[in-house]
Design a protein that fits this description.
heterodimer, A: 310 residues, mainly alpha, elongated, B: 316 residues, 0% strand
Chain lengths: 310, 316
């Protein structure tokens, strides 16, 4: 069980992403930035993705103004089919599905971002410390990542959430526990590769502390690739969170969370609209983030960048 | 490793498995701890567990009261049947489409397949399962779904635990048809994510090989394009695809947790879910050990395939 190679969790970025992320730190960065800013219209997918994300963010911000009904208010008209009055119909408690889908964006999007930020910060910090100090610190932290990688991601997340008690906060915590190791590994590799370079030695000779060296001299090497990795991970985070909620381990019942709503739709199988629309919401958000991420990946990948610029 | 982790989970299996009333009764709690060996020290528990594992004893599930090994023997074939069917679908579609996308690079089939690939990795599988179940099976009545066999149908005599193979061995064609038709929909849904991943990687791998000098040389010789692709491009490209497939299969096992839930497939995923909810430590441990063994076997298969694909890697 203590195999040194990662026993993959689905949340772990696949090898290609890491290569691309690393490529971003190299000479590619400026070129890629130019490629990305020059002609966005040549990449319709990126434009669509950006538009959809902006739309969802606006919906999240203005949900109270946009939603025709209170997302928690139970009406007498249960399981109504979609109509002009209830665009997406009503659920088994007579709540307006359309309003609940709109409000759902206020949970899924910020929480997914929070999850990615937390995993990035924790993974980057631990990875940098491991790579920089080496020896037993490195050994300890890397055994910890092995430990997490030894479990299938979602099973570990389920066990942790079940132990902490179901709830969105605990679901985010559990997923942070499952996702930080992939960042730690990438960052450790990057730090290891720059640790011996001349500008680091020079900085050390000038008497800067380990903390200063990491924060000032190592950071530029690590920052680019890590940001790319996290950008690619947001869509995945939405999927994981809604998955846990679907299993009943995330959002608690009245909360309008998309995964939980799909689960409710499975319970009232005949009323297809209860489960269909929240799932479409998840799909559009994740797809939009992946459209953007895919373009980013292409722009940063030296093998495909040429075609993009042409 | 996984033993430590399950112990580190900050929940008390006692409260999770005994009711509210019982967990307030110190006698019942002590009896439960003693029965499950929880009153001993951690290293002691660990050594006991490892020793038992060597003899194939995974302990007793606190939830089902069955030996975990017996539970697993029943659930693992169900999930493997589903996962293997899904990976076959994913390889056929993902690799096939990936080659097409690379050959039509930047033209409309490539653009279309790129959207398909991204949709595959973006769609929530539990939702896709629900939608497919409702529309394809329930509304349009194209394929049966829900469970591994029709309700009330007798299970074929157990040989491999794969209903499709067992029914064939028993010469029972009706059961075979039933099992296969109920396998198609969940396998397709489970494969969706993997198709997306494999499509992207195959495309990249084929594109890389297409830029090689020897491909140009093969074309210069006047070989038909189909021969060039089949003989000079696919073989080197397949190497990296095989690696990704191994990784993807592991991801697929995680996907079963969600898909089995919708289709009422009584496999490892559903078992992991109920055990995690009940903090049934021996069961969770059992699932982890089985999955770890599957990963190791998978790596072995991938390594062996390298040798088949690339003669340079064969050891004499």
């Amino acid at each position: 069980m203590s195999a040194p190679d990662p026993l993959v969790v689905p949340a772990a970025p696949l090898a290609g992403d890491v290569d691309v992320a690393v490529a971003a730190s190299r000479a590619g960065e400026d070129r890629a930035a130019r490629t990305l800013t020059r002609s966005p219209w040549k990449r319709p997918l990126a434009v669509i993705g950006a538009v959809v994300i902006v739309a969802w963010v606006l919906i999240a911000v203005f949900a109270p103004a946009l939603a025709p009904y209170d997302p928690l208010a139970q009406g007498s008209s249960k399981l109504l089919e979609p109509s002009a009055e209830h665009l997406f119909g009503t659920d088994n408690l007579g709540r307006d599905v359309f309003s609940r889908v709109l409000y759902g964006s206020r949970l899924s999007i910020p929480l997914a971002l929070l999850l990615v930020v937390l995993a990035t910060v924790i993974g980057t910090t631990l990875g940098a410390v491991a790579g920089y100090f080496g020896r037993w610190v490195d050994g300890g932290i890397m055994r910890l990542t092995d430990l997490v990688f030894a479990f299938p991601g979602i099973i570990l997340a389920m066990a942790v959430t079940a132990a902490l008690g179901a709830g969105l906060r605990n679901a985010v915590l559990a997923l942070v526990i499952v996702t930080w190791p992939s960042y730690a590994r990438v960052v450790r590799g990057l730090v290891l590769s720059t640790r011996e370079s001349d500008h680091i030695s020079a900085s050390r000779l000038l008497g800067s502390s380990a903390l200063r060296t990491l924060a000032v001299d190592v950071r530029p090497t690590v920052l680019g690739p890590v940001l790319v990795l996290s950008a690619l991970d947001v869509g995945n985070a939405v999927l994981l969170l809604s998955g846990l909620s679907f299993l009943g381990l995330g959002a608690r019942p009245p909360a309008p969370e998309w995964g939980a709503m799909v689960s409710a739709g499975a319970a009232v199988f005949d009323s297809w609209w209860v489960g269909l629309f929240p799932g479409l919401a998840i799909l559009t958000v994740v797809l939009a983030f992946n459209f953007l991420g895919d373009t980013l990946r292409d722009a940063l990948d030296p093998r495909t960048a040429r075609a993009l610029r042409g | 490793m996984s033993f430590l982790l399950t112990q580190a989970v900050p929940g008390d299996p006692v409260t999770a498995n005994l009711g509210q009333r019982a967990s307030e009764d110190p006698v019942a709690v002590a009896a439960f701890r003693a029965a499950n060996g929880l009153d001993k020290s951690l290293p002691e528990q660990y050594v006991t567990y490892l020793g038992n594992l060597l003899t194939g004893d995974f302990g007793t599930s606190q939830q089902t009261r069955n030996p975990v090994a017996a539970d697993l023997a029943e659930k693992v074939p169900a999930t493997m049947e589903l996962a293997l069917a899904a990976i076959v679908v994913a390889i056929v579609l993902g690799v096939g489409f990936g080659i097409v996308a690379a050959l039509y690079r930047d033209r409309w089939p490539d653009q279309l397949l790129r959207v398909l690939s991204l949709s595959g990795v973006s769609v929530p599988t539990f939702w896709l399962a629900l939608i497919a179940y409702y529309w394809i099976s329930f509304k349009l009545d194209l394929l049966p779904a829900g469970g591994r066999l029709s309700p009330g149908a007798p299970t074929p005599p157990q040989v491999t635990g794969f209903y499709t193979i067992d029914s064939l061995l028993a010469g029972d064609w009706a059961t075979f048809g039933d099992a296969v038709s109920r396998l198609i929909l969940p396998a397709l849904v489970l494969a969706s994510f993997t198709v997306g991943v494999l499509l992207r990687f195959t495309r990249a791998a084929v594109l890389e090989v297409l830029g090689e000098e020897y491909v140009r040389a093969a074309r210069a010789k006047g070989l038909p394009e189909l021969t060039v692709v089949r003989r000079h491009v696919l073989r080197p490209a397949l190497l990296s695809v095989v690696t990704v497939t191994g990784v993807a299969f592991a991801g697929l096992l995680s996907g079963t947790v969600l898909v089995e839930q919708i289709f009422g497939w009584r496999g490892l995923g559903a078992y992991a879910y109920t055990s995690a909810l009940a903090l049934d430590l021996p069961a969770i441990m059992g699932v982890s050990v089985v999955v770890a063994v599957i990963y190791i076997l998978l790596n072995l298969v991938v390594d062996l395939l390298y040798g088949v694909i690339d003669p340079r890697l064969r050891l004499s």
